[in-house]
Amino acid sequence: MNLEKTEGKSPIIETQWNNHTIYLYLPPSWEKNGTRTYPTVLVQDGDQALKALAPMVAELEDRWSNGQGREFILAMICPLDRLSEYTPWPSPAMSPRFPDFKGYGNQYLDSLYTGLLPWLLKTCQTDMQNVSMLGYSLGGLIGVYALTVQNCWRHMAGICSSFWYNGWISYLENNSISERTRSIYLHYGTEEGKGKSGPMEKAAEYAAKTGRLLAEKFPGKLTITTDNGGHHTFADQRLRNGLLWLNEEIGADACCSLSCSNAKKPNPL
Questions:
Q1: What domains, with CATH codes, occur in the chain?
Q2: Cystine design at 91: which of 42, 101, 133, 172 (Cβ 3.0–4.6 Å)?
Q3: What would the pLDDT profile of 39-97 be if each residue is shown by its tens digit?
Q4: pLDDT digits over 105-160, tens only?
């Protein structure tokens, strides 16, 4: 894989990993074969997220140059079968027009941890101790679910996550969040589910319930925001807000590390 950053070309690099198309953004200070490692954000539904997030590159770089946040690698992963990869266990389809949810989420998450992250470490200098996730809809569901089965994700931003999924609330009530997780961001529209039937009809209610459960179970920082839209309303802006939140959290990590480092130094005589 050629990761040369060439002037005049898009800063987004299209590459392949394990049959998945991945859109990569490498920050300004990144150098091929360098020794510095970088925080990394994995984004689900990369083909959809690309349209919203690619235009943010210049804004992020301006923020970093002004001391807001911290440089990170952005890896937008295109799914092979999102109804399988982004679902934690099998469940019947919501409509006969669609196939059943196969529930291969555990296998997918394991492939990220044992395959994608080492690959990103080798090719892009990813900091394996500082990897976060951003997901929308089922992508948000599998991201929050990941915090209950893996101990490797730093920050998680779930946008309009599919918490209506069969068995989700009961599952969350009986499981805890990884001790490695520093912060979680949830956003949903209060009109989500309007016009739907079945569990989807109560999407906003399930999102609010998930927020209450996380507030009880998660001792870290939990941020919950809402708007008055439906599931697909303001989608690009919602993704942008999630990524900007992650930038602030990643930047706060760096400030915390510096403060802790300075605190360990003895006072000069």
A1: 12-261 (3.40.50.1820)
A2: 101
A3: 999 999 999 999 999 999 999 999 999 999 999 999 999 999 999 999 999 999 988 88
A4: 999 999 999 999 999 999 999 999 999 999 999 999 999 999 999 999 999 999 99
